[in-house]
Amino acid sequence: MPNPRADARKYFLGIETSCDDTGVAVLDDSGKVLANELLSQIDFHQVFNGVVPEIASRKHFETIHTLLDRALRRAHITWKDLEGVACTIGPGLVGSLLVGVCTGKAIAAALKIPFIPVNHLIGHIYANFLTNPDLKPPFIILLVSGGHTDLYAMIAPEEIRYLGGTLDDAAGEAFDKGARILGLPYPGGPSISKAAEEGNPLAIRFPRPLKKEDSLDFSFSGLKTALLYYMKKHPDFPVSDAAASYQEAITDILIEKTFLAGRQTGFRKIVFAGGVSANRVLRKKATERASQWGYTAHFPNVEDCTDNAAMIARAGWHSLLNGAVHQPNVTVDSSLTIEKTLATMKDSTAAKTQENDKRPVR
After folding, report:
1. Domains of the chain
2. Is the whole-model pTM more than 0.85?
3. Of the candidates 235, 261, 313, which has an alpha carbon nearest to the alpha carbon of residue 140?
4. Which of 29, 114, 149, 294 is the most buried (most CB within 10 A)?
5. Tell me, what's the pLDDT at 131?
6. Distances (CA, A) of 78 to 33, 73, 75, 207, 356
């Protein structure tokens, strides 16, 4: 039977194993997602109220080859059709990252195709390009997840400027800790959001730390403490009302700081990225505020907000199109930052330019 996709197109593989979700995706050279396989480990970690690194890396190892085969079948391609491999190298859990990176490097070596390292945080930003391929900078980015709550300005794809971030807990971490206080299951974001559907968001007036300040930094630890003390003082208070009020405070803080960044920079385009960007209240508030102020708010599809390999493939594909070369010696970095990635890219470009300048003119 002829391969329906065995044509002149190019295909790109993405691998994501930064935490507890194993992801494998295939994109074609138009940026279209042909396969986006994901296996969640939530059931294994839920009993511990958080991710156990040793379990996470073991599960990645047990499942990644199955997902690779499934992704290729769903995309209707074979190994020889691949033109490159993109893989998350950080930030994340070292053991989990190593499973994906070792697998990606082995594939690249066996097929003699480029291995392209991807910063997981930049991958989350590029999830927006899966939803909106025509999205162009400059714009403000709110990167909000379990481990990060940061504001950036993307002036160009390779020029991203840090504006501010959390001084303590990330917003996703605040959701997880709040859920634990309320007796709701892990992960906290979806649990609080579900409980809040039946609650009154104005039932408790929680503090909004730093809201009135002109800074673009966030703080959530005091909010978590306020919830803890309130529930200790009112043990019979309805969980739905507490969840709704807590969610209201977190999303208020995120919206105020994000649109403050828009005012300070003059950028009227706001891009949301990371797992918390799936929150329905955050999306509603951002859309309403953008409409009122003449801004535009952009979100990935809900299923692309959390960790997935399509966003990694999309970021890697962009890098390859812009001159990235095979990088077989790159290592994982559990604390990798966007700034470090951009600096490395800049150094690599400079080195390549210098090498080209030294070549004799024929």
Report:
1. 11-125+306-358 (3.30.420.40), 139-266 (3.30.420.40)
2. yes
3. 261
4. 149
5. 93
6. 16, 8, 9, 55, 35
